[in-house]
Design a protein that fits this description.
The complex is a heterodimer. Helices cover 31% and strands 28% of the residues of chain A. Chain A has helices at 54-61, 84-92, 109-118, 124-137, 153-165, 183-198, 210-213, and strands at residues 3-6, 13-24, 28-39, 43-47, 69-74, 77-78, 94-97, 171-175, 202-206, 219-224, 227-231. Classes of the chains: A alpha/beta, B alpha+beta.
């Protein structure tokens, strides 16, 4: 039996996940025949209890894990067959805000964010401009030259999000982006995501923070024991 | 251009983080190049001296009696049938006596009451340039000794043999020291770069997740190895040059070293040592980066 959520048509699909299963040794099933289609420019929320498989699904999409079974296509390319230069090029087009941030603690906020653009050999002037812009969006302007080890968890999370958005990639994966944020900072992050989404970026947000998706018009998918199901939201618009 | 500026930026960052180990590696590479090229310099000079000795080599055959003029062409033919020679000179007792007198200089008066007849008739044979190896000279000497009327053959055999063995020993030292120093250089460079990479492992992992290509990660590391080789080889060879100049200035004049007419390594040899050091250091860096490209 497979669990699936397929809102967009195949023609507009950016991500196509077909019957993907992921098991960890000895026999822990993180994902059970999950199928999902995500369209170009779509914003999607992935929810579920801790250990439901949200992070695993994001890890599969950013090549940190490989599926035990099934097929994952991004932009019509089977990512299981990508390797070497092509894999690295694909990674450049996916911005990932990791749950554990994955920042370089000795390097400054600027250096951490710039890294994502440096690997694409972007112009140093452009990099500087973009970093300043992102820090202003996320309320971290005054921290630009601070080593990330000296930041609070919430600030580190925002740096990680800024790095994911730096290249304006076609796909952004955010794992619990508001996990360490206060409502004001969450609002800054979500504003940034919405703006990028309006510009055409596909964004997948794994979260169990209901405030992020409650009033959102975007698709909400629920993972439970490795199975995926779409939640149909009913908007009570009384106006 | 952007790639180059990135490489040099990364190099500067690496140097700031691990300059002590890099300076130590540079020192090791320089020392390795210096030691190897020093032995090589001695070897080259000895080879040169040996070649000069070869050119000046002559075999003196003492004869029971003078070879009559009519038989001299046949005698010469017998010699040239065995080996190529540059020159064959027949020396009469009178000529030999005159030479001896000249050699004795002020003490030549001791010969006053003597008659040239106490000296043997001799033939001086100057072997051709290709007769260089000790074995060939020895064979030639044995052959000359077997010629009819030959009593004794002299060519400074013992001295030449010692010199030959010394050159062989030196050649072995050059080969062994070269191999060991090559291994040391490669090991040191790859070890230093590996240490730098170990300290950057987290960064490299994140870089891979951000989509850094092999070229992006490999570039600065290869350039680092290349620069270590370049600077190490330059400073090693420069140190050798100054050492050579010092030896030449302090030991020139009449004496043992003057016999050799010391000369520095030919450009082709210095260039080869330089290129090999460069290549080995670059290879050392390539070896160390391999495992980090598998993330």
């Amino acid at each position: 039996m497979s669990s699936s959520a397929t809102a967009p048509t195949i023609d507009t699909a950016l991500i196509d996940i077909v019957k993907v299963t992921k098991t960890y040794p000895p026999d822990i099933m993180a994902l059970d025949e999950v199928s999902l289609t995500v369209g170009h420019g779509e914003m999607l929320f992935l929810t579920g209890a801790s250990g439901a498989g949200k992070t695993t699904l994001l890890k599969l999409l950013c090549f940190l894990e490989t599926p035990t079974m099934g097929l994952i296509e991004i932009d019509k390319r089977d990512i299981g067959k990508l390797s070497g230069h092509k894999l690295q090029q694909m990674r450049q087009h996916i911005g990932v805000a990791y749950q554990d941030f994955r920042l370089l603690p000795k390097q400054t906020v600027y250096q951490n964010i710039a890294l994502a653009m440096e690997v694409r050999y972007e112009n140093p002037k452009f990099i500087k401009q973009r970093v300043v812009e992102l820090l202003a969006d996320l309320g971290l302007t005054d921290k630009i030259h601070t080593p990330t080890a000296k930041l609070s968890r919430g600030e580190q999370q925002r740096v990680s999000i800024a790095r994911a958005c730096a290249n304006r990639p076609p796909l952004i994966l955010a794992d619990e982006p508001s996990g360490n944020l206060d409502p004001a900072a969450t609002s800054l992050v979500m504003n940034l995501f919405h703006r990028l989404n309006e510009e055409g970026t596909t964004i997948i947000i794994a979260t169990h923070d209901q405030t992020l998706y409650q009033k959102s018009p975007h698709r909400l998918l629920n993972l439970e024991n490795g199975k995926l199901q779409e939640i149909i939201k009913v908007n009570f618009d009384l106006s | 251009m952007r790639y180059l500026s990135f490489i040099f930026g990364q190099l500067a960052r690496n140097f700031r983080h691990g300059w002590t180990s890099q300076v130590m590696t540079l020192f090791t590479v320089s020392l390795s190049v210096l030691i190897f090229s020093f032995f090589f310099l001695i070897y080259v000079n000895m080879e040169k001296a040996s070649s000069r000795l070869g050119n000046e080599l002559r075999l003196i055959v003492s004869l029971e009696q003078e070879v009559p003029t009519a038989f001299r062409p046949e005698f010469k033919k017998k010699i040239t049938d065995f080996a190529k020679v540059d020159k064959i000179v027949f020396i009469s007792r009178e000529e030999a006596f005159a030479r001896l007198s000249k050699q004795l200089g002020r003490d030549s008066d001791i010969l006053e009451d003597l008659d040239p007849s106490f000296l043997p008739y001799t033939v001086e044979i100057f072997p051709a340039g290709d007769l260089k190896s000790l074995t060939r000279i020895k064979d030639f000497s044995d052959y000359l000794g077997s010629l009819p009327g030959a009593v004794k053959v002299q060519y400074g055999q013992e001295w030449l043999e010692r010199f030959g063995y010394f050159i062989s020993l030196l050649r072995m030292i050059v080969i062994l020291s070269g191999s060991l120093l090559i291994l040391t250089s490669v090991f040191m460079v790859s070890y230093t770069i590996r240490l730098t990479l170990e300290s950057r492992q987290e960064e490299l992992e994140i870089l891979r997740f951000l989509g850094a290509t092999d070229r992006y990660i490999r570039g600065p590391v290869i350039v680092e190895g290349f620069l270590l080789g370049l600077l190490g080889a330059c400073s090693g060879l420069l140190s050798l040059f100054f050492l050579f100049q010092w030896i030449k200035n302090h030991f020139s004049g009449p004496g043992f070293l003057n016999f050799f007419e010391l000369s520095f390594l030919p450009l082709a040899n210095s260039g080869s040592i330089f290129l090999i050091a460069l290549l080995l250091c670059t290879c050392g860096s390539l070896i160390s980066i391999r495992k980090y490209l598998k993330v």
